[in-house]
Amino acid sequence: MSSFFETVYKGSLTLLTDFYQLTMAYGYWKSGISERESVFHLYFRKNPFNGGYTLNSGLELVIDYLNQFKFSEDDLCYLSSIKDADGKELFEKEFIEYLKDMSFTCNLDAIQEGTIVFPYEPLLRISGPLIQCQLLETPLLNIINFHSLISTKAARVVSVAGTSQVLEFGLRRAQGVDGGLSASRAAFIGGCSATSNTLAGKIFNIPVRGTHSHSWVMAFDNEVESFYAFARAMPNNVIFLVDTYNSLEGVKKAIEVGNWLKTQGKKLGGIRLDSGDLAYLSIEARKMLDKSGFPEAVIVASNDLDENVIASLKEQGAQVAVWGVGTQLVTAFDQPALGAVYKISAIKSSTGHWEHRIKLSEQSMKISTPGILQVRRFSNKNLFEADMIFDTLSSDKIKSSLIIDPEDFTRFCEIPKNCESEDLLVPIYREGKLIYKPPTLNEIRERSFTQLRKLHASIRRLMNPHHYPAGLEKKLHDYKLNLIYKFKKKDQHEKRATDLNASM
Ligand SMILES: Nc1ncnc2c1ncn2[C@@H]1O[C@H](COP(=O)(O)OP(=O)(O)OP(=O)(O)O)[C@@H](O)[C@H]1O
Ligand SMILES: O=P(O)(O)OC[C@H]1O[C@H](OP(=O)(O)OP(=O)(O)O)[C@H](O)[C@@H]1O
Ligand SMILES: O=C(O)c1cccnc1
């Protein structure tokens, strides 16, 4: 693949970050800790769409982003021009010089694209100079949040479609240019067969497909004339949109032109239904096509489809071989963000020792997990059994087989015996050097299919899925709990001391 960011955005994307990352970067530099080694994790807290799983994607774009990570002259010029409240330059010249020399020197470990993942599992683990890890928070979240969300949505749609194909038709209603391009790639990873987005086809090598629109039909004096014209222009790609005036009348005209195509040694590819009762119309259209000698002509359906409508249509016996899915898929209509976060979890002290870091919250789901984390997946007879999140700082050799839900410690489970295991975070960069060969998009898509097959059907189902056991290894859980107690106790102590002082 040609570099996505180079192709679409010609300049540097290093400033594609929240401004506070730059003010913090400046602060770290002024405090002399910008090069302090630190560890950050990117993870989400809840599977999207009330589903039982998430399909991870976006790593190749992360790599693409990191490969171009460098402040350009233009970027530095812009930063130099930013003034503070007194009208003075916000960033000192020496800091700008420091940024000029900065290049990506971190280690990155990541869960591969097309892998099924669960809440609280680090999808990315980045370690290196504090300032770099901090600046990268926003772009990494931007890429992974959207990509994984759309891949998951696509996987849900594709799973209900079963043996029928899903085409991604979303570009016209996607969230801007990049929203459209990224969605096409993510949707392909999630199992869509092709996209209508031609630029995505070119950049990512995704198959492109298309029928025709209502305006084609309306540009001619009548429907049948428009069908003849289309068949003459493109005899090997004939799928007629039949609902411009009356769907079943449209099918009759498609059959008429199909008969003419036969005389030319060509085939009617199919028809597309885009309004009305898609179950009834597809069943009727199928009967008409079969009776007229076109059993191979496919019925494409579109019109604001999502996984729930498709599931209902299938239940009603809809005779649809290809689903065209746009708006609902590329905008993740029912949940517009995955909500992944990026938190620091360890930092090296001035004496060179790793220190754990934890973010506290009244909400247990918002308490971060300290350490340098890894995820171990246990499988049995080709079925995923459980995932264990553990701290490589303290528990590289895992002893306990107990995992505890990060949100609710009353929920725990024992990893079944005799499971195979695999560590999900794999090395991507070492000291800024890319050491990972990204798979092709087709390989990633295949991985998604294989992974989904290894997920029990009860976890895959759309409604009220089962909870997959993914939790903290006991030692890590205990350590986290101790840290929380320690902080809370200290907090209470300090509060009591302040209250005492106030009452004196
Ligand atoms: N048999 C069906 N069961 C459930 N949902 C359906 C069925 N047929 C169509 N739908 C879905 O119902 C929604 C609305 O369909 P409707 O027939 O109202 O189309 P429409 O949008 O009014 O048509 P038009 O595109 O002409 O405006 C769409 O999301 C469509 O996919
Ligand atoms: O419905 P989606 O899942 O987004 O799929 C893409 C839609 O885009 C086209 O519609 P068009 O822009 O012509 O609008 P209309 O058919 O709703 O009038 C096409 O006919 C589909 O209905
Ligand atoms: O090719 C199609 O049928 C198509 C493409 C984009 C949006 N709706 C339909």
From TrEMBL:
Entries under InterPro entries matching the protein: Aldolase_TIM, N/Namide_PRibTrfase, NAPRTase_C, NAPRTase_N, Nic_PRibTrfase-Fam, Nic_PRibTrfase_pncB, Nicotinate_pribotase-like_C
Species annotation: Fluviispira sanaruensis
Job of this protein: Catalyzes the first step in the biosynthesis of NAD from nicotinic acid, the ATP-dependent synthesis of beta-nicotinate D-ribonucleotide from nicotinate and 5-phospho-D-ribose 1-phosphate.
Domain Nicotinate phosphoribosyltransferase C-terminal: 376-479
Domain Nicotinate phosphoribosyltransferase N-terminal intervals: 15-145
Protein known as: Nicotinate phosphoribosyltransferase
Signal peptide (UniProt feature, chain positions): none
Keywords: Glycosyltransferase, Ligase, Phosphoprotein, Pyridine nucleotide biosynthesis, Transferase
SUPFAM superfamilies listed in its UniProt record: Nicotinate/Quinolinate PRTase C-terminal domain-like, Nicotinate/Quinolinate PRTase N-terminal domain-like
Similarity-based family: Belongs to the NAPRTase family.
GO aspect biological process, one term: NAD+ biosynthetic process via the salvage pathway
Catalytic activity from the UniProt record: 5-phospho-alpha-D-ribose 1-diphosphate + nicotinate + ATP + H2O = nicotinate beta-D-ribonucleotide + ADP + phosphate + diphosphate
EC number: 6.3.4.21
